[in-house]
Write the structure tokens for this entry.
Amino acid sequence: MSGKFTEVHQRSLDNPEEFWAEAAQLIDWYKKWDRVFDDNDAPFCEWFPGGELNTCFNALDRHVEAGNGDRTALIYDSPITGNKGSFTYSELLKKVSCFAGVLRANGVDKGDRVIIYMPMVPEAVVAMLACARLGAVHSVVFGGFAANELAVRIDDAQPKVIVSASCGIEPGRVIAYKPLLDSAIDLASHKPSCCVILQREQLAATLVMGRDIDWNDSEARAEPTDCVSVLATDPLYILYTSGTTGQPKGVVRDNGGHAVALLWTMKNIYNMEAGEVYWAASDVGWVVGHSYIVYAPLFAGCTTVLFEGKPVGTPDAGVFWRVISEHKVKVLFTAPTAFRAIKKNDPNGSLLKDYDLSSLETLFLAGERLDPDTLHWAEDKLGVPVVDHWWQTETGWSICSNCLGIEQLPIKEGSPTRAVPGWDLRVLDENGNELPAGEIGSLAVKLPLPPGSFPTLWNARERYFESYFKEYEGFYSTADAGIIDKDGYAYIMSRTDDIINVAGHRLSTGAMEEVLSDHPDVAECAVTGVADQLKGQVPLGMLVLNAGSEGNEHEVVKQVVQMVRDRIGPVAAFKQAIVVKRLPKTRSGKILRSTIRKIADGTEWKMPATIDDPVILDEITESLQSIGYAN
Ligand code: COA
Ligand code: AMP
């Protein structure tokens, strides 16, 4: 294939150092790097070693210094509370430097960790940027996780300070965050020295004397604090994501490579210019929120929209159109689930006619497979290009996308287009041999990974190597299976591990199984992700009970559902489990989860050659049919 995109992509692979050094010119550095890239200790690699910068300076201060302080940095739109507001770059800078002063006054210095457990309020963004300003490492924990999950992250990250709020708001209920935070701190072995609590008007929290301080009081007394110079290779944040076990992986992001790569994506992938409005309808607790609600739009001098609401029910399926028209959004980025929810509520898109969507140029979708129905519905109703793009928490930005700022390529249904410049994507067989076009295999990225992708896992250097680089030497293993066609278009088929994707949220079935196994009546269990029309996938548990538990099935199911909600959180959406006599296994004892999934989804499946007892699959099919699956 020829064309501008092919030329840029090839250049990025032929000479990555030159390519990324050029991109790095757009970032403000206190000290230039010694080398663009160092892979002496591959797969542990460093981008821009020796370089010094500050991420917050690049997100805020430099725009103000350039005379753009009056430009809107952040629009807060919260249909769930009825609040709206906006901050110019100057206003946001003032808030961030004051909050950096609060953190500093409470002992936070360069390299210290700060956990942020907050709903979608501007203060969450302020806290993240204040950490970056001090060179402290933030770790944002999504509000839908339970106290136990927060405790695991507290113990791993060992934060000096935790920043939280009195409550989050979900449709129809106010969620008290403070009791969750208190119980997480009780459960954790590590204790933060201070918690800063934002009191929201919907619910006041009781503060713990000597440990908790009120956000507003402390901000009022704070000394504005300046940016601290950090190394390009110093960590900016840790973001925990699901692995195959209950222990989440602490994905680390550096400062330098991250800033360079994310700024590059704003123009080259999303075709955004300074002053334009970008809206990622996600949550700051996910990687999409880190990269595209907070950092990338601000690096680029754009206006970012922080939306506290849902695509439906706050108040209706027209809210996305209202936000686009009211704030003149140029690019919307969300998960396909959000569009499935809107389409289900308003199949004809009749609410669209109430709004002027002329500002919208592109819809970007990611986080899960984009089904053709949703793609076509969105294309048809919005009349703009709908771009599927594929990425992961680990990569921080997209591996495959249509790069609208370089050259718009034709859209092919089912494909997130081609590997983005910086990414050398291949399809490998189980022996690590490259497969020809059109054949399915493991999607792997030939090293080096571009800047912005994760340089390590927090406290888990060995796990970094074992999980991602051991399987195929010289490659990053994405844990997604797929195809690359003859035109270089990738198709993402399924995960090769036990991760599932529920409403665009990445969850570990292994972690859910660990919870189910703790029930005293459960002898064995398996959790698989089964197809769901709205959420893409939802977890389904299968339980084998201990002898003597007969007659108690209904109660056990109810209890395990509650246990997952209490221990992992409502975000797991674990609502169904069935009791079966036996689980299908291979002769070596491995549970055949993917066969269970295919049977449940009613898709084609083959009898595994290694199955121990084929009859079990008949029993499983019957059980699944009894709850409406396997048809
Ligand atoms: N704090 C506390 N609880 C939360 C929460 C938070 N921040 N976020 C979600 N939850 C709860 C929800 O209330 C829900 O609880 P329930 O089981 O009592 O109803 C549960 O976690 C699951 O939440 P969610 O996945 O949001 O499902 P939903 O049924 O409430 O809404 C959609 C369905 C499709 C509208 C919703 O998933 C959505 O907007 N998805 C958009 C995709 C997205 O943002 N993806 C992020 C990656 S890009
Ligand atoms: P997360 O780390 O939460 O971003 O989840 C990453 C996983 O989500 C990937 O490994 C894929 O399995 C899935 N995913 C993300 N984007 C896409 C996409 N565009 N198409 C298909 N799957 C996707």
User: Anything to note?
Assistant: The radius of gyration is 24 Å. The domain at 4-309+389-482 is CATH 3.40.50.12780 (Rossmann fold).
